[in-house]
Each structure stands twice: as C-alpha cells, then as structure tokens.
Protein 1
Amino acid sequence: MANLQELHQLGQSTWLNYLRGSFIRSGELAERLREGIQGVTANAQVYERAVAGSSDYDSAIRRAVAEGKPARLIHEHLMADDIQRAADVLHPLFEASGRREGFVSYELDPGAFNDVTAAVAGARHFGHLVDRYNVMVEVPATPVGIAAIRALVADGTSINVTHLFSVGDYERAAAAYMAGLSEYIASHSVWRTTPTAVASFSLSPLDAAVDPRLAALGRADLTGKTAIAAAKLLYERFRQLFDTPEWAKLAAKGALPLRPKWTRVTPHDFQHGEGYYVNNLVGPDTVVTFSPVTLNAFRRDGQAAETLTHGLDEARSHLAAVAALGIDLDAIAAGLQADHLAASDRRFHALVAAVTGKRDQLDSAWRALTMQLGEFAPPVEEGLQAVCRHQIVCRIWAHDHTVWQPQPKEITNRLGWLHIMDGMADKVERLTEFTAGVVAEGYTHALLLGMGGSSLAPELFQKTFGRATRPANKPYPYLELVVVDTTDADAIRAAEAAVDLPRTLLIVSTKSGGTVETLSAFKYFYNRLAEQLGPEAAGRHFVGITDPGSKIVDLGRRYGFRDLFLNDPNIGGRYSVLSYFGLLPAALVGVDVAELLERAAIAAANATPCHCDAIGDNDAARLGAAMGKLALAGRDKVTFITAPALSSFGDWVEQLIAESLGKEGKGVLPVVGEPPAPVESYGPDRLFVHLRLEGDRQQDALVAALADAGQPVITIRLRDVNDLGGQFLLWEMATAVAGHFLGINPFDQPNVEEAKIKARAVVAEYAATGALPEGESHAPEPGVLDEFLHKARPGDYVALQAYVATTPETDAALQALRQAIHLRTGLATTAGYGPRFLHSTGQLHKGDGGNGLFIQFISEAAADVPIPDEAGAPASSMSFDVLKKAQALGDGLALRDAHRRVISFAVGVDAAGAIGELAAKI
C-alpha cells in the first residue's frame, strides 16, 4: 500500500480537492493531514451539495436569515468561515514547510472575472473576509485572468491558476506571475509573506475531448495518452522557465516557482485505473490534487516512483501524431476553457439556489426521512452510535473491506457505485447526443435485452419517466423502451410485436457478457432483423453495455454494433443504476440524466458524515441501522408502501436488498407490491417503508394506522420523481450499512450459481435425450395448495415464482393470490416472474434462513420460438420454452437441495386463468 510520504520524498506535494464544514469540525481534515495531505481546494459544487443535502450549514443559514442577509452573501460567509477554519488547521504545516505547503485554495464567483478591475476587487474583498496568509485565490488562465494574476501577485496575494489546458496557457500565466513577483518584491517590506502560486493543469477533460476524435479517425491506439504527453511537456517548459538568471534573482529574495499542479486526475473512461494519471505524473516540484476517489485508489494501488521526467520523446511523438491527424489541440484547449468557465458559473448559481432552497426547507421544517419505530427506537439509536464510534461510514467511503469481511474479495472491486455520479456526469453529453442521433435517424423504440441489474433500472425509467407519463399532445423526442428479461416464448413474441423492428434500437446489456437469457435474446432478434434488413444493416441496430474486456466487446465488433458503452468494472449489477447500465436507457426515454445524477450527488453529501455529532443527519446510516437492527430483532420483512407514480422503484430496490442481504443463513426480505390488507393482519415480523411523493396523500391513512398499531414505520419523502436519483444512493448505502450489522458481504451472490448449474444439467439432458426430465409438478388444484400452505410457520414468507408471460391478466391473478394467501396465513408474500427473479430474489431464496415457501407456476407456450445456435445462422437446437422450463426445473432442484419447501404447478397455456382460480378457491 503506497503512502503519500513516498511522493513527498520524490518532491511531489499532495493536495485534496474536498472541503466542507463537517469535514473540518469532525477532525477528518486533521486526519488527512496526518496521512500526508498538504493542501486542500474548496469548490462551489461540494458546498452546494453539502448545503442542499446535509445539516452542515443549517445553523449558520438560520443565523444569516435572521440577520437579513441575502442568499448570495450567505454562501460567501459560509465559505469564508470554512476557509478560515481549514487554514487554521493547515497553518502549522504552512510554517513548518517554510510557507510552501499548507494552503487552502478557493474559488471566487466567476462573474468577477469579466474585467480585471472587478477580479482584483473581488479577490481583495474575499481575502479581507478570510484574513489568512495560507490561502490561494483561484484565477482562470483567461486574458482577464492573466492580467489579474500580475496585479494580485503584486498585491501580495497567493494564487492558483486554473482552467489550464495547454502549455501556452501555462507560459502566459508564468510570465504574469513573475512580473507580479518583481513588482511585489520591489515595492513591499520584507515582513510581508511573499506570495506563491500553483498552476492547475486539467488532465481528464483533455483526453475526454481528444479521444473520440482519435477513435473516429481509426487511431484508438492513441487514446488516453494526450493529457499525459502534454503534462510532461508542460513540466519540461516549467523547468526551463524557472532556470534562468532572471528567475534566480527573484528566488534569492524568497520567491517560489509556479509549480505545475495536476488536477482532474480521475480518468474519463473506465478502461484505465483510477490511479492512471497520478502514477504517470510523479515528479519533483509539482502538486497532485487527489479527489477522495483517487486518494483511496492511490493508497490502495499507487506507485511511488518518478515517472514525470521519463518518456519525453514519446510524448513529443504522440503530440506530433495527433497534430498530423488534423486535431488542433490549441483549439480544443480554448473550447475546454470556455466550457469549464461556463460550468463554474453554473455551479455558483446552483450554490446560491441551494442556500435559498435550504432556507425554505428550514422554514417549513421539511425532512426527507422520518422514523416511527416505537420500542425499536432505542436499539436503532444504539446501533447508529456504534456506527459512528467505529467510523463505519467513513470506512465505507474509504473502501475498507473490513467493514464487512476480513478479506477484500468481491468487496474492494465492487465499490465503484460510491463515486459513479461524478464519473457519469462527464458522460451526459455523450448520452444526450447519442439519443438525439438515433431519434433523428427515425428510431422510435428500444428493446433492452438484459437481466437483473441490467433490466430493472431501465424498466423503472420507462415506467416512471417514459412516454406514458408525458402529455399525449406534446412531441416526444425520445424512444419507447421495451425490456426483454425473459425466456418465455410468448413474452418474446409479445416484445417483438410491441415494436417496429426496422425502427428499433436493441441494447445488449450484460456486465459479464455471458448471461444466457441475454445472449439467447440477442441471437433471436439479430436474426429477425437480418431477415428484414440484411446482415450488414442489422448490426447497426445494436449497441452494447458491458464491462471492458467482456464477450460483448468482441460480439459488438464481430456483428458491427453501432456503439459500445464500456462501464466501470468496479460495480456489481444491482448497484449499477447510475452507471451506463441505467443511464443509457434513461437518456433514451427522456430522463434528465444530469439532474438525476445531481440529486444522487446531493444524497451522497448527506451520506458522508460519520462522526457522532452529525450521524443523526446521515439518512443512509439511519436507514441502514434500522434495517439491520430490526432484522436482528426478527423484523426482517421490509414492506414497501409506494406512491403509485413510484411503483417501479420497488422492483429495483427488491433486487438490491434481497441479493445483498440474503445469504449465510440470514436475510432481509423486501416485500414489494403486496396488496393492502387490514392492519391487524400484519405479523410482528414487519418493518414498513412508505415512499411518499410530495402532494400524494393516498396512503397516509394506512401508514398512520400502522404506526398507531405499533408497527415500525419509516417515511421517505420525495419532492418529485427526479429525487429517485437520491433514492438510489440512499438505498445502496443503507444496504451496505445493514450488511455490516448482519455480518455479511452485501456485494457477492454465492448462491445464484446453484440454479444455473442445475439448469445447465437439465439442458444437457435435453440435448442428449431430446426431452426434459420429469419434474415434481402438480395440477393447479386448491386442495394441493392448501395442504402445502399448512407447512407454514410463524415468521415465514410465501414466494410466488411465475414462469409465465408477463401480462396485465397474470399480474392481477398473482396479486389476487398473494392477497388470499396473506389473509389466510398472515404471512408476507412476494411474487416474481421467472427466470427474471433468479437475478433478483433468487439469491435470498436459497441463501437466507430457510423460512420461505416457494410456489412455482410453469406455463406452456402458446407458440414456441426457436433460439438460434448462432447469430446470423438459422440452425436451432433448443427453444425458449425448453430453456424456460429447464430454468424452472433447475431452480426447483436448487431449492430442494437447500432444504426449502417447494411446490410446482403446471398451468398450461392459460396461466392467468389457472392462478386466478386458485386465488378464488383457497
């Protein structure tokens, strides 16, 4: 494990791009300094999210409002107070380092840099508020900024030159800096602190801008190298500029050089590791600015070896090759500077809006999450205090596997969801342009071929944000999404009938690239398109979402896919909603992806505090403690009461909880979509969660009655459907915290393979004999079901497993049966379509404590559909109906091997009728 002191020994300073009130007050900043951080940068985006999502600044905002301050002045005073506190923490380092380290760098309102006079005045004003020597004001490397640099340095102000994307920008900033130093030294007394400076060169945005151009020109081999090459040449120029007789005279009077500072060091794609830029740019007289993500990555996998001075010839050759392809790096740098200045301006406006919004929330006493836990409130509070005492939340953010297990296997490479919001924010433009492009070409529908984590989030986005939720009389410049997460032959035919294939985009979505259901659907739909359009045109209708290096990458190249979206491989399927797996489909159906990600980032800001004086504001920690502690107390059925507009969220969160928390003989059962029942019918094994959309009071009376009856109830309020972005992060973190309480790894799925192995054996027998083996099935007779239900015990649950086509009629029949069984037994009930649920609740069914009763329904296809052996060829050795039945048989065998109570009903071609009749007669 690398440490920051090794970088210091090589002459590189280490800063952290993160600052907020709770980070200072809790002692976390001081802890980072002990670990080797030597400076921090404060930015408006972190403040905006902390203001909007946490209570960090609630007291200060209340005081400022009472004093009559406007929002624009309130945010200024919040930042000034934090910068002062942080500067005081860093001041001993500032003095011990000869005033070279220990700085706090801060932004001004970008509007101040419209002219030089305003910029200098703004910096002087804020500098007066802060009143600390060890601070730096950030100044953009624009013409106005360059002129301001000279004036500010001459005035004695230390600066951080920002928005640097080229060597030329650095040269101009260096000249202004040296001119300002000359004026300062000539005109000021020796007792004043000589100003110093760093120049922040942005890495990832440069590659993000250049790489698509290289790929389009057929030079993908050159991607990911431009920023490092430019940085190495910038460093070479730095050494030349600050090794002259003129500079030596300034240095003799205490002047320090304009050190290059590497910033935005998180790679823009997911093919390079998080430490890619850091490891390639280690060298003396430089600063590296870590994000919290890259700091964790460096400490885990970093390489403390000098690399910056090596490979200069290769760097020059690379930049020459880029130029020879007609790519103008100076023009790209100018465009990036303009874009990033505009983004800075938007961040400051968002910060002011966040202060205004928080002021209104405080006035109305609005809270996103409230708990009515009755007798369970004390143990949950004890659990929450244990979380803060043991720094569980901080350790989760630091990717510490010991929160759950002694070994890091399937943990440290599964925590990318913690930070994916910021990584995907840089991909919004690509998603928006892709969507606009396919719509402009005349596409009207999308078929998503995926299972579990690859299908549940896309379905949520279609049902919650799609065409059916929009006014019918307004244009809809997006696609209608149909999800294919089935092997039911009738469902496959229904999906095909729901779209016009020649105007349909098909999305092959699988993390591993080996999901049998997804690949079977791909082969079928590829052949259907090839029949209509020819094989050359068929491939252009497909895109892939997968991990780097998976089989889908080769498949996409072989069949000429329109595009491939390579995801962060450090995210498990059920945690992937805010990655390409969820957000490409979201963009296609018209979700405001940028807003969704921002809501998630605000929720992350709320989920970050881990110290005891702020843990009560951490909704994810509170929710996770409640789930974990109540499960340990026997309240292990988390029952969702969901606003109708949010109903599809239940299917997504069902997989997250069941697959994460159902293993090693333990389990938390998510109960989703259960028909409402009399309050007295619910047993003492429930925890109710009410997802309430602002303005929707339909379920308030039921929830109040449950609380009055002594049932523990958690209410979560959403202002609008975009708050689902925050819910994704909230529930992911809460599930991780609950896993800590249960003592299990919430990121693996040790029992999922069992049903697959059994199914493969069934398929092999079919291939050898031409027939499926006989299963233990029954005719759908009420007496048989009644006898099976007599096996139930208190605390059990009943799971309906429907290997049938999804239709409104089967939905209604399953719901009627769930209600009948609950009223008959008092047990919690769940329902899932097979094989879809195998990728959702299947892990819990075989991994929990064995308190489930499983009722399988297996239908006959009205018309079977062959699965091609290979895409592009007609030969078929198996059909979808055979595959579905093999999966049902395999899962039944796996359940029986795990000593579960199982019964199977053969329901023929009229599944809805057979299930409905059972519901009417038990």
Protein 2
Amino acid sequence: MFLWGQFTFSQTEPITISSDTKTTIEFLNELEDKSNYSLFYLEDWIQDLEINDNFTNASITDILESILSDTSLNFYVLEDERRVFFLQNTVVYDELPPAFYQRSDTVIMSQVAENRNNIPPPTFYNDEVSQTAQKLPIARVGRADEQNLRPTYQLTGRVINAQSGSPIPDLAIRSRGSGRVAVTNEQGEFTMELPAGYNVITTSAMGIRDSEREVIMYNDGTLNLLLQESLEQLQEVVVEADAVSNVEEAVSGSEEISSEESKDIPLVLGERNILEVAKALPGISSAGEGATGLNVRGGKTDQNLVLLDDAVIYNPTHFFGIFQALNPFTTDKVNIYKGAPPVEFGGRLSSVLDIETKNGNVEKISGEGSIGPVTGNLALEIPIKEDKSSLILGARGAYADWILQALDEESLNNSEASFFDGIVKYHHRFNENSEIRGTAYYSKDNFSITSDSLYNYSNRLGSVRWAHKLSEKSTGVLTASNSNYNFGIDYEDEGNSNFELDYTINESELRYKLNTRLNDAHTLDYGLSAKYYSVDPGNVEPKGPNSNVDPVSIDREQALEGALFIGDEFKVSDKLLIDVGARYAFYAAMGEATQNSYQEGAPRSESTVQDTLSYGSGEFIKTYGGPEARVSARYLFTPDFSVKASFNNSYQFIHTLSNNTTVSPIDTWKLSDLNIKPQKGYQATFGFFKNFKENMFELSLEGYYKRMDDVLDFKTGADLLLNENVETEVLQGEGKAYGVEFLLKKNRGDLNGWLSYTYSRSKYKFDGDTSEERINNGEFFPSNFDKPHDLSVIANYKFTKRYSVSMNFVYQTGRPITYPVGTFRFNNSDYVTFSDRNKFRIPDYYRLDLGINIEGNHKKNKLAHSFITIQVYNVLGRNNPYSVFFVTEDGEVKALQSSIFGVPIPSITYNFKF
C-alpha cells in the first residue's frame, strides 16, 4: 500500500515549467525530467512546433493538450510504464464499445446499429489498402478527436503552378469512389467534403499534368497542392475556359479566348490579334474593316469596358484598329462578358473585356518573339526569386513607313505610320495565402497621311493587385489602378496657322472585393469601388513665333464614380444554379466649372441660354445613380445540356463624342454633367447549351433583347472638338437591339475550329420637342453598325504535328449609310438633298483568309523553337467598301467608295520561343 501511494503521488505531482529562451527540444527534455515520463516522437513531427506558454502546477496531460492543440499531433499515455507516445493525426483506442460483450438479441443489435449510424467508427488505415504507385507521401489531414467523429470532413486548400507560382483556376478535383467533385476558383482555392478515412483524389486541368494523391481524413483540415505544367503540346484551336463550363456555369453570354489560340488564325499581315478573333464570335462585330472598337450586341463602341490587368485601356488598337495594342506574347487571355457581367464590373452598357497578362516564369529565363512584315515583338520572362517572384517584359514596334514610301502614289511618299508599346509585370507570391502583382503599360502611335499634320495618341496605365486569404472560407482582392489616354495634332503648313492641339482623360480607381464561401450552397462576392475622373477637353496653342492662331483652352471636367456590390452564387439543387447580384452605382460631376442652363421646350443653343452657373472646386454640380441588378440562372437537364436565362441593367456616366461613322483616335470622352444625362441599359437573354461526344462539340443558341435610354447622337454637321458648349450639339434618345446567336465549335481532332452566325438588329430613336432635335421624324432608324447577318468560319486542319493549314471566312451585311436622293437650286446655287439617316446600305462584306503553319522540329535540346506562318489576307481580292462618299464633278453628283485592303495581302512571319 505504501508503494502504491508513492506511485499515485508521483503520477499526479503538479509540474511548473517555462518556455522562455528554450527550443522545443529543450522544453520537451525538461518536461521529461520534471514529470518522470519518457516522451517518444520523431523530430520531423515537431520541427514547426512553437511553444510560447508557461505552466504552473499543471499535469503532464494538460501541458501536452495545450502545446499540441493547434497541430495535427495527438498523444497516448501508457501509465504503467510512464511513457507518452506522440501520434500523427490519429489516436489510440484501448477500449472496445460497451455493447461488445452484451447479448446479441434483437433489441441490443438494433441499439448497436442505431449507435453505429449516429456515431461513425474511428478512422483506421492499413498499408495494404493502397493499390496505387505513389511518388508523394500519403497526406494525413486533421487531428483525430474521439468526441467529434463524423462520416465526412471538410478539406480545403489552394493549388499552385509549380513553374510560375501562380494559382491554378478551374482545376477539377475528384474523389475516386465517392463521386465528389470540386473546382478551384480564380485564386486556386477549393473546398470539398470527403469521407472519413482513406481517400484518393485526382486533379485535371488544361495545361496541367494530371495528378493523384492518397489522403487520410482524420478531421477538417487543409491540403495545398503544387502541380506541374503539362509538357504535351496542345493541338486544338479551342475558345473555351473549361470543357463543360459553357453548360454548367450560370452566367451566359461569356467567352474566354487564349492568346495562344490566335496564332493559327490568319489575319492581316500575319499579326496575332486577340481582339480580331473576338469579332469571329457571335454578337461581336465592328463598323468596318480597320475600324477601332467593338460593337457588342448592338451597342456603341464606348459601351465596352476594356481592362488590362484591372486598369482601363481607352484605345487598345494601333493604326486605326488594324493591329491590337497588346503584345501577344505577354497576353494570357481575355474574358468577354456580353450578358450579365460579374457584379464587381460596372460603368458600361454592353460588355466587359477583361484582359489578363501572363505571370512570368519563376524557374528560369525564357522568352518568345516574332518578326513580321511590319512589326517585331519580343517578350522576356525573368525569375527574380526562385518559386516566388518573376518579371515579364514585353515590347513591340512597327516599321511600316517603308510600305507607304514604296507605294506608287506621290501624295503618300512623305507619309508616316509607326507605333510601339511596352509592358512590365511583376508577380510575387509571399506564401500560399498572399500574393501581389503590378503592371505598367505604355503605347504610342504617330501617323501622318497628309504632309501638314502629324497625329499622335497614347495609352498609359498602371495597376497593383494584392490577393490574400482572410480565413479558410474568405479571400480578399485589393486593386489600385490609374489610366491615361492622350491624343494630339501637330499642324504645320506654309502659312501662319501652325498649331498644337492636346486632349487628355485620366482616371484612378480603388476597388476591394471579397469572396466568402458560406456553405456548399452559397458563395458570396461583395465589396466596393471608387473612381476619380479628370478630363482636359482640349487646348490649342500657336506653334512658332509667326503663328496667328489664338490659344484656346476648354475648362477641365472632374467627377467621382463609386459602387457598392454584392453577389451570391446560389446552388438550389444539382440541376438549378442561380447567380444573383446587386450594385448601387453613384456618380457626381464636380467643379470647379461653369454650366449653362437652357430654356425648357427650346432647342439648346447660345440664344436659349437662360443662366450660367458657377461651381467651386470640389462642389457637386449634379449627382446621378441607382440600383443595378445581375441575375443569371442555369437549369441542367442532363450533364451536357442546359438552359440559361439572365437579366441585368446598368448605368454609364461617360460617353464618346464623335460625328464620324467609325471611331477615330481623336474622338473625345465626355463626362455626364448638368446637361448630359448618363446612359441606362437593360438586357434580357435566354439560351440553350449542349455538348456532344465527350465535349468534342459545343453547340449554343442564345437570344437577347436590349433597351437603352439617353444614348447620344449628334446634330447634322455638329462641331464637337474644342466646343465649350458641346451640349448644344448633342441629342439624347433611346435605342433597342435584339438578336439570335448561334455557335458550333469542334474542340479536338485534326480538324477543329468554329462556326458562328448572328442575326441582329440595332436601332435608335431621337424624338425631341422641336424638329431640330429629331432624327428621321422621330422614328427608329438603323445604327451605323446595324448588320443583320454576320457569319464567321474559323477552321484549322493538321496534316502532321508540324504542318497545318488554317482558314478564316467572314460574311456581313453591308452597314447603313445616308445617300443623296436629289438636288435643288436656291439663289442660283445647286444643293443636294439627302435621304433619311441610314436608309441605304453599302454592299455586303465578305473576305477569305488562308494560312500555312510550319512548326520547327521538336528536338528538346535546341537554342529556340520556331514557328513560321505564311498567310494571305483577302485571298479573293474582294474590294470591300469601307465607306461611300459623294462628290460633284461637272455639275453631276458621283458616288465613290474607299477600301482598306482591296487586294490580296501576303505575309510571312517568323516566331521563336526559348
């Protein structure tokens, strides 16, 4: 009895121990000495264990519970031998269930069965269960808890590209046997429920090597995956984000185009052009060949929000829209939203083009470039810190002047046309929970088609984006950006009217977006954004001491734009998915400025000015705003067939001023103010989406209807540039657009590509109080870009892995135009009378382009891998009219047409990659 009492006393003797100035090993050694217990563990298990607590009169079990509570380690105490064994994830069970020894009558067996249904058995693992050859060690997740046994546990994590260090979105993670599937979001994060115990998960995504991992689930926990890129060369021309996303996603009217997909498509002068490829998709077109800007579902070009790494780019083209102002070797992809865009985007009525730049290589220096007839491109990827940070540099320039000088046209011998653009992007991943990226971009164009005027325009932008994980279920993205667009005219002649003209628009934005996964059914996106505009509408300065041009300067315009937004992707059932969101947009035009007020019921002019109002610096001139809805729904009839519908409305507070048929580099942007209201738009869509033959074929048929209020147009002969009272030249009315879009794509095989067809109409109506404010007697009339029929065929056929041919065919209805229909004589002078606006059409447009693509040999060890494209643009030599104009010769009115490329244009481009 004496010996037993001594043993009991030593067992319960309290321990006082401090962690100050001790390593983990030193702390555990001291704990052994003071407790008289031997501790057994592997040092690898405790290398990340930090002990920062002090204990007074505590038992050994209390001390171990405290220091191991936030780890995956458990412990088991063998009292008789005074030993403590550390356990990785699991626990030791040293008792059988109470019912084990009871009689097995019906009542007892039913109680045992009920108990077994409510309380799952402990998690056990036998090495013989594993039948797969694994190079990676088995992943043990969670810390077993005898008091909290469940049939399933939650696995969360993040998937990272081992080469670039960037997150991998749209990666499918499947649990073998259970049928459970999860897909990573934009930050590479995923959450899925797995059965307790042994599991095998597999991963798959385009361009990522498939992987397999054995996982033992003891409790909820985290598992991050580092995956390798696939070295297999893709052979398809596919415009898709994921094999089944077109069917499964709730959002309709969205497309994703990879820059790599544009390399096989024959375009003018062999230039890769991701924006030109976008025109081959249904619902997207332009006013004509060489026209700057896109018309999306009957909207104007200024109704598109074009973003480059979260910063607005006002003119993403070079040389009147013939070339894109984006380096194809630094551009990763563009996401196009034609319907209800994500809830964080706003400020435009028609579409969002979200262009993303690649992350640089974090392992080794690499590069890509091309040399063509008129341009040279180069991109370099430089690792800064291995597996952590990288820098990507891109530059391209044109040497097109020699073409103009070689033309057999004396008036063009002194012309010039050149451009360049450059981009720098830095990307750094701090850890699996935080990363930052910064982008800087600049482009500039100079062109002179006449001998007396030099035109120039430039884009400058910068953005910083910090993505961080707030908790297991929440992430945040903070973005700051600045954009600047400028154009100028440098005029010189032999007289005294030399001048310099400048125009600038600048905007800065700050946006914070959060994503929270509440549960399996709800995922929230929410946040706020604020934007500041500063517009210098233009100024003219005399050039040279002999110029007699008077200086002119238009007052600066300023405004604030902000929004609060929240969205929820609500999984009602396996078949029904709803994506619903709401925004509240706010806008305020600010001083310092002066604004005119006009007599009601009278056309705006200098003679109807009622008062001139002055506003101080920072004072609000006029505020606008209102709620915006984003609603999309998808019903899945079968895994490869769905029906989708959507509705959205939006406000647009900024407009372009142009009285040209197509957008030009000297179009100005105008902010809403006291006299110019914001545009408002409403759009509803409904469509069917179907995949065939294991997603080899995609088929979609989607209809839309769009209504627009307070859209802008201009009076005939309007003077817009350097006009202090430009509102006197502006008309605001209503518009409507509707159409049906058909798309058939073949994603795999030797022959791949797509066929798209759109039937659409785009009409506007301006019906003011007076005849001066009406167009076509206040009736709806076709817009300048109304083209009912639009057909595109993109095809690529691979003979071998090195040789392929490609084709691009386009057919479009001729755009509307206003014709002279008669003449009259007044005061002994002849005048022309014109038809109603846009009553007639120019001839239909069609074009066929062909290309031959030759890959270099596929030897692994070589200085650079090459790729040669030989293309002919407009093979048929179709003299497609760009515009039709009228001249009077010998008292007779004659119609003439101008064309951009009226003959076949051959080109050869050499591409290299190292």
